[in-house]
Amino acid sequence: MLTGFSANEKHADSGEIIDKKTIRSVSHDPFLPLVKENLPPNTENLLDLNQATLQGLTDESAYLVDAKGNFKVMKVDDKVYLGYLSRIDRVNNQVEFILNKGDLRKP
What's the rounded Cα separation, in Å, for the pair 63 and 93? Predict the structure, then answer.
């Protein structure tokens, strides 16, 4: 528990409880960036979204073209470099990918 200290004399050193806090340890160094510059190589030759273009959608598939002009048909949960396809929204013409460019120990 924290006790209150204030520049206002009415509240200064009142000993009043102002907040309860739960202290948790952090799983990363807060002084390191969450997005890493040195990413692992794309050894599985997966689609790199930084160099891909969405060409079309159906309710269950996304059609993308990579930097080399290769056509890729993807479904939800298909892997891409550093992540996977998480959602296809044909109504709004959008796809959502979950990427991990930080703590690379997690998928």
Answer: 12
